[in-house]
């Protein structure tokens, strides 16, 4: 008897979760209570002591969770559905704000280091660059969420027309879910840095105070149009990794494999980028030494320490990728039991 009651409660919770997760957040609690009451009444009508067959029959009569959710919201098709729409609007506000801030910082630094000859032309360029950046941020974010909506692997897919309540996946535990705020924060930060790299790479410079401020770029800006393409690929991989986390929403082996593949690509590209002489300003050490920046002697071997810095940076990138991959696999193994269905 206890086993029957446990099965009824478990499969009911699974069914209700699969319905309400497709609905707007503001409606979920009310519909959860309404649906729980409806299922309880339907069970009572079938039998005073309902069992497995009764709850299976009730849930089958109610229909697939996705179809019942459609009836509640009276919507069949959408670019970004209710499950992600509130999150999409929230992220969109943050991304648009971060994009505007990044552009403002980049253009301000650009005007400070290389003032435009004509103020009107400078303002026009600023406005056009701002609009272009905002449009691109909106387009890429919308495309990303649309892909998440379209290919979300969390959606239940039954092999044929005759689905069974026992096919329902378990309700995920809180500790095995990925907080949406984590990938969102990472995406916003990555996007902000990406904007600065593309619009104002000169901001990444060594600023030497004196009678006049001396600005020495860290990167080789003479080949920047080629270098930034590789940087953008690394940034795109970082954004893709966070979208994968957002897509799955919980730790499992598919997530771990996806993250690992992206980490391998990102690591290989990052190492090639950081160790390439074309990335760094070849005159950085000699320029800083010649102007005695920060009190350096003219015979100080700054080039040696800059080379050491690059090696340490590569080591940190490798360590970061290893830690991220091991962590996600460890959690996937730990929570893999939650992937099991009812038997």
Structural key phrases:
2% strand, 343 residues, 2 strands, two-stranded antiparallel ribbon, 2 domains, mainly alpha, 11 helices
> What is the topology, as strand order, of the major beta sheet?
1-2
Number of helices, counting only DSSP H or I runs of 4 residues or more: 11
Q: Radius of gyration from the CA trace? A: 27 Å
Beta content comes to under 5%
Shape: elongated
Number of domains: 2
Helix/sheet category: mainly alpha
Q: What's the average pLDDT?
A: 82
Helix/strand order, N-terminal first: HHHHHHHEEHHHH
Helix share of residues?
55-70%
Main sheet specs: 2 strands, antiparallel
**Segments where pLDDT lies below 50 for 5+ residues?**
337-343
Compute the number of strand runs: 2
Q: How many angstroms does the end-to-end distance come to? A: 16 Å
